[in-house]
Amino acid sequence: MTTIKGKAISGGIAVGKLRYYNHDRREPVQYTVDDPELEVERFYQARVEAIGRIQELYMKALQRAGEQPSLIFQVHQVMLEDMDFEEAIIDIIRNERKNAEYAVYRAAQKMSLMIATLDDPYLQERSTDVIDSAYTLLDALAGRNIREMEGEGPVILAARDLMPSETLHVDQERLLGFITNHGSVNSHSAILARNMGVPAVAQLPEELEQHNGETVILNGITGQVVFCPDPETLAQAVAQQRAYRGQEEDLKSLLGLENITRDGQRIHLCANIGSVGDLSLALCNEAEGIGLFRSEFLFLGKDRPPSEEEQFVTYRAAAERMGGRRVIIRTLDVGGDKRADYFRLPEEENPSMGYRAIRVSLGQPNLFRIQLRAFYRAAVYGNLALMLPLITSVEEIRAVKELIKQVQAELLAERKPFAECVELGIMIETPAAVMISDRLAREVDFFSIGTNDLIQFTLAADRQNPKVENVFRPHHPAVLRMIQIAANAIHKEGKWIAICGEMAADTTLTETFLALGIDELSMSANSILRVRQKVRSLDMSNRDKILECLR
Ligand code: PEP
Ligand code: MG
């Protein structure tokens, strides 16, 4: 039995045989043709065929996943009918006398590259759709047909990556789930999987072909995948699967309902995101806002930091898509386990307590100013709020406020529109911030408790070290008292407080959080309905009794 971990992109648990799907997505052979007009004719015939196939895929997706996710195939059709795309293909065939396959491939690559560099993150994501629709055209040119995958019985489909069209290759009755090496929460395959109610895990760090034919447990909630499980693990997974399915049905009935207890106490339930692509899932699960946008994900995995324009477009898109609901952008939180070469972060003995988060932003003010400029410009387009990570002192907040003033003065002088009055908040991630939360509350508008860090610093237990996992206990009374002290002090100053660490989604603590008067819980979008269900089941009339556990 082996277990690996990837990124959970569609909830649920699947148990079944792994079927590896090896897609042929190589560059087609290029050759010179004697009669270009014959190739042009081949292209037009293949396009008619490809559009027919895309329409079939659209109908299939409509039946299996519903209206919204199926629209991607209409986008594919529009792409194949695009005049610029057609002209580029014809141009290569006629002027370079190349075969139609090569012309289609080159024109698609060029168009995809061009889209990938556009400012709009939604359009950037469409660059893979250009390639997907071009391959439908290449299949038609080669006389290959999109066929259902053969095989007996239901399968867990595994691949390096899956395009939306490939996601539909297996009959729904025979499809138990997907696992891939690449892919993200935002890819259309992921959206289709979620809408079809099929569990999926992406970004698995292991060659999957070697497991072809093996029995697999896929956990789309935790991101864990187990190959060749022992009988006990298998039995546990089957029981979990049964329980999960029952719960899912109950949760769907909560859509459209309020986050309110039986005796009328309300709480905001918001989503944590790492990119604008995560917004669709947040909106589907009725997030009342974004309680934590981890902006560092825009900076990681790159060889240079994102420009002001890139950041501006992203923050603006988030503000606009949330349509007036609050979006809290957390400023850069690099350092610790989040690193990129260009930050030139030093090697440290103890990086999570080292040069990270607000310390890097204040230590590299030029980088920070770019983020602040982008933020204040984007804040004109919606309800953005700014949040600072890992604060330990009043002085840090004052230093940021000074920078904000300078940046706003610059924007004014440049006549660039920007928002002047935007809520400013900080994260409570250190015992220091808890102990001086009354003073901090006089400096800012709101707080959000980052319990992942607060637990590790309160209990002196590295959140990344499996050896001290048993010490890292969210329910430890010291952690709960930290939250209580902060909540009381902050409310006394008339400010509001949220929790955005993983603890926010722990339904065994929802009652305690409500009793403490926590104003907002922000979590992975998949957890929102589960927490809503819990909130609606509670009666808070005996608050003192609930808080007895903290005495
Ligand atoms: C936290 O510390 O709880 C938090 C939300 O921040 P991160 O997990 O990104 O450190
Ligand atoms: Mg943190």
Helix-strand blueprint:
Elements: E1 2-5, E2 7-10, E3 13-20, H1 36-65, H2 67-81, H3 83-96, H4 100-116, H5 121-125, H6 127-141, E4 155-159, H7 164-167, E5 175-180, H8 188-196, E6 200-202, E7 215-219, E8 224-227, H9 231-252, E9 268-273, H10 279-284, E10 290-294, H11 308-321, E11 327-330, H12 358-363, H13 365-378, E12 384-388, H14 394-413, E13 424-428, H15 431-435, H16 437-441, E14 446-449, H17 451-458, H18 477-492, E15 496-499, H19 510-515, E16 520-523, H20 528-537, H21 543-546
Parallel strand pairs: 3-4, 4-5, 5-6, 9-10, 9-16, 10-11, 11-12, 12-13, 13-14, 14-15, 15-16
Antiparallel strand pairs: 1-8, 2-6, 3-7, 7-8
Helix pairs in contact: 1-2, 1-6, 2-6, 3-4, 4-6, 11-13, 13-14
Bound molecules: phosphoenolpyruvate (PEP) and magnesium ion.
Describe this structure in words.
The protein is an alpha/beta fold and 551 residues long. 44% of the residues lie in helices and 14% in strands. It contains 21 helices and 16 strands. It has helices at residues 36-65, 67-81, 83-96, 100-116, 121-125, 127-141, 164-167, 188-196, 231-252, 279-284, 308-321, 358-363, 365-378, 394-413, 431-435, 437-441, 451-458, 477-492, 510-515, 528-537, 543-546, and strands at 2-5, 7-10, 13-20, 155-159, 175-180, 200-202, 215-219, 224-227, 268-273, 290-294, 327-330, 384-388, 424-428, 446-449, 496-499, 520-523. The strands form two sheets. The chain has an eight-stranded mixed beta sheet with strand order 1-8-7-3-4-5-6-2. It is globular. The two termini are 45 Å apart. 43% of the residues are buried. Bound molecules: phosphoenolpyruvate and magnesium ion (MG). Phosphoenolpyruvate binds next to strand 10 and helix 17.
